Amino acid sequence: DKHDENQIKKIMGVQRQMIVNFSKFNILNFWPGVTKIVLRNRWRELFSLRRCQEDVLIPLIRARKKAKEERVNKSKEDKKDYEDEYVLCYVDTILALELPEEKRKLNEEEMVSLCSEFLNGGTDTTSTALQWIMANLVKYPQIQEKLFMEIKGVVQDGEENIKEEELQKMPYLKAIILEGLRRHPPGHFVLPHAVTEDAVLGKYVVPKDGTINFMVAEMGWNPKVWEDPMAFKPERFLSSGGETFDITGSREIKMMPFGAGRRICPAYGLAILHLEYFVANLIWRFEWKAVDGDDVDLSEKEEFTVVMKNPLQAQICPRLK
Ligand code: HEM
């Protein structure tokens, strides 16, 4: 559905509040019985924000449900199938979902949680990764120049937008995206996982229902695996045999910015494509330079993802005549 600017701003507003307060609210999870007493105000704040989120998202979910019912009725009346003219969206898929064990549909509150997860999981991660990558291209102009020359070799002069097929002919671009995700993974941990029964891992027993997580950033910075790990060197991903790096970790795990195994990010392919598309077009259209006398500061700050403490500032000059 096409939402108006005002509605989009409202969605952004509530989602942004959830993101910036993520760590503050996450603490409430550790010992809810105790935090409900000692951090009462924080719980109140969380519930109030959650109500705002429901006020914004539930009407949109209901509107989609109504549209579907109207379509079904119309197609019965007209004896015509309108499904082909219809673009399926995420909300349609969760409206149709039925929990197999409980044999019931999702309620509106559960749908709000899923929409919120999907919106944050699909936007904040990619935009954070994009900012880190662009910051490195501003900090290291020789890498930016090498990428521009690669793009110039593939794209016709004067062509405004780089096409998806053209991205596949740019190995250095791919290497830059992978190096960005290794050096600055948006999430320094994956989502919390739990074991369903006692499990032995190395010398340790992980008890049933125990929460476990993985040090994603540390893995990508391991000096036993990566040479000069804190340096930004896309060349490390340019293999001589032309074999692409396996980001899913199905052969070996050298880094896991999208997690690994059954719960790997379902959108890792889309995310990499988005990053390739944005970076290639931003560099093709503009030259990016540091603001006079300013060295790009790569200090980190933890929000929902690990973002630039001092957001990237750059001068951009159009390249296309
Ligand atoms: C650079 C961009 C992205 C990064 C670094 C990233 C990273 C991750 C990570 C680390 C996880 C957790 C994996 C685990 O728990 O083992 C995850 C899960 C998830 N991601 Fe992404 N993600 C990105 C983009 C996206 C996009 C574009 C979408 C949706 C359009 C998305 C949707 C999801 C969803 C729904 C989950 C939860 C899957 C589950 O619980 O099984 N992500 N992502």
From TrEMBL:
Give the keywords, sorted.
Heme, Iron, Membrane, Metal-binding, Monooxygenase, Oxidoreductase, Signal, Transmembrane, Transmembrane helix
Entry binding sites for heme:
C265
Offer a single GO CC term for the protein. Answer: membrane
Provide the topology term for how it sits in the membrane.
Answer: Single-pass membrane protein
Q: Which InterPro entries match?
A: Cyt_P450, Cyt_P450_CS, Cyt_P450_E_grp-I, Cyt_P450_sf, Plant_metabolite_P450s
Superkingdom, according to UniProt?
A: Eukaryota
Cellular location(s): Membrane
Identification of the protein by name: Cytochrome P450 family protein
